[in-house]
Amino acid sequence: MSALELRHADTDEDLAACFPLMRQLRPHLADGAELLARVRRQEKGSYRLLAAWRDGHPVGAAGYRFQENLIRGRFVYVDDLVVLDSERRSGIGALLLDELSRIAKGAGYDWLTLDTALNNSLGQRFYFRWGMLSTALHFGKPLR
Fold first, then answer.
1. Could you tell me the CA-to-CA distances from 92 to 11, 73, 83, 95, 141 in Å, in that order?
2. pLDDT value at 136 more than 90
3. Are residues 87 and 96 in contact, defined by beta-carbon separation less than 8 angstroms?
């Protein structure tokens, strides 16, 4: 298996290449154009998409943003973490989180957080193994 390269998907072409991967996590996305439009809007709020590339193709990705609030102070929020089904259990998810931790610490941020579905027991097991702890229960209410 060829080596991985971790780098941000910054160009339109890189983001379009990430669509099949991101659709695995976010099946409501219609196409690459929708992904591109959403990422470009979210970039105004510091969103970045870090991808793991193998042979020029994204096999894992982590979307994240720098945030601050009264409860946590300055923190990095992981919006998206996905690895191709064919690449799972190869350590890519941990590599992406390790790199996000390095980026966050380098920018002076002391906390990394994310949300996951209550029924995502495999994801929760991965996060516990990576060293994360469950610190809250997220609530939401649709307004439309």
1. 22, 28, 7, 5, 33
2. no
3. no
Amino acid making up residue 28:
H
Helices (H), 1-144: 12-25, 32-43, 92-106, 121-130
137 — pLDDT class (breaks 50, 70, 90): confident
**Tokens coding 116:** 């996951």
Hey, which CATH number is domain 4-130, 3.40.50.2300, 3.40.630.30, 3.40.50.1110, 3.90.660.20? 3.40.630.30
| Predicted TM-score (pTM) of this structure | 0.92
Distance of alpha carbon 93 from the chain centroid:
9
Domain residue ranges of the chain, discontinuous segments joined by +: 4-130
Helix, strand or coil for residue 70? coil
